[in-house]
Amino acid sequence: MNAKLNLTVPKPDKRSTQRQSKLLPVFMAALLIIIISAVILIYKKIDNIKTNPAGTALSPENIKDMALKLEKQGLNEISALTWKEYINTASLDNIDAANIWYRIGKLYQQDNEYAKAIESYYRSESYAKIQEIETEISRRIQECFESLGKFAALQYELDNRVSINKSKDEVVAEIGNQKITKSDLDQKIETTIEQQLLQLASYLPVEERNKQKEKMLKQFSSSSQKMNFLNQIILEEVFYRKAREENLMNDKNIRDLLKAQEKSFLARKFFEKELSEKINITESDLKNYYAAHKDDYIQPERVKISHILVSNDEDALKVREKLKDETFENVAKEMSLDKVTSEEGGEIKSWIENNGVTYIPGFGNSADAKKIIFETKSGKIADKDIKTDKGVHIIKVREYEDKTQRNFEEVAQEVYQSLRSEKEREIHTQLLNELKDRYDVVIHHALFAEKENNEQD
């Protein structure tokens, strides 16, 4: 009990302290490795959740299907990004990669992302130059540079894309470094003619349009005609370039106008596409239509006449006195005020049909004229004069034809026009009803009826 308590802190053992000091760096390094590994795992999980919330990585085929669906829906930019993801995940050879980059370029170009489109086309060529799309890529790159207004870059591009065939082709004009060859000019002429004839699709069958195309191409066979067309191309091109340089595309009024024209143009082209796909008129169709509508192709009775025009009734009497002793032709040359027909003895060249139309060539409109004309026998002078705002007409019927049934060969062109117009109306009505339903079109007719009633009041 007399033993004293030792309250002093014992001194550490030197060997234990040395061991602890050696283990501390090892422990800290291990701890750091564990922390870094955990952080990496966390980020990987977060990234996996972002790219694939379901937790399962998409296969290349799934990504490809997604890109195709997006492209079909017209979501071009998202589709392009998805195609890029497909390139990064799929094991593609250079040909496949080149084709997909070309596809991506077209998507960007459709969205007016011209710089991205150019990059994509260049990437396509960097993987492989595919003969089937090489010319198309070249054309599209030039279009993109034009749309960007980068004409210096365009010239550089053209300089580096002079193909073997082009170098052999005869150059007919140059705009800076852009060359227009003889084949370019010929192709442009042909394309322009085709576009013009396409507007006549409702009136001319394909065979007839091809004949017209051949005739129109012959008109450009002379050097002078080609030169005129070339000058028009150059005028359009240099004006277009200047407009781009002056940034007219940024003018709101111009943008609005172009947008309206684009809407109208695309609507018209869509309808033309539908017509071309759905209308196929055969000769059998034409003959069947003709047989069912024969009454529409009856030639009404018609006559050819001559006339003597004078200013008043008194002069008309003088003419009739002369006609007792002289031929109609001689009196017409002497006394008719119609200088167009008097030299020909008063002869009006065209046929006049008894079809209810009051207009008569050389006369104008006259309600009584046809009644008097068709009451007069062939070779005779009408008993009554015809009065119009031009004066007084004394007429002679030179030739008469009774109404006849026109044969199929004679009216084939008219039959085609009638049948095509009928089919166009049917397709137009059907399409309009379908698209109104698809796009939920609602017209509030009551509002228009109310407005009309207010206007009447």
UniProtKB/TrEMBL annotation:
Keyword Disulfide bond attributed: no
Start and end residues of each PpiC domain: 300-399
TPR repeats: 98-131
PROSITE patterns (alphabetical): PPIC_PPIASE_2, TPR
A Pfam family that the UniProt record links to this protein: Rotamase_2
Annotated InterPro entries: PPIase_dom_sf, PPIase_PpiC, PrsA_foldase, TPR_rpt, Trigger_fact/SurA_dom_sf
Gene3D superfamilies assigned to the protein according to its UniProt record, in alphabetical order: 3.10.50.40
Keyword field: Isomerase, Membrane, Rotamase, TPR repeat, Transmembrane, Transmembrane helix
Name of the protein this chain belongs to: Putative peptidyl-prolyl cis-trans isomerase
Source organism per UniProt: Candidatus Scalindua rubra
Transmembrane segments: 23-43
GO molecular function: peptidyl-prolyl cis-trans isomerase activity
Superkingdom of origin organism: Bacteria
Entries under SUPFAM superfamilies matching the protein: FKBP-like (SSF54534), Triger factor/SurA peptide-binding domain-like (SSF109998)
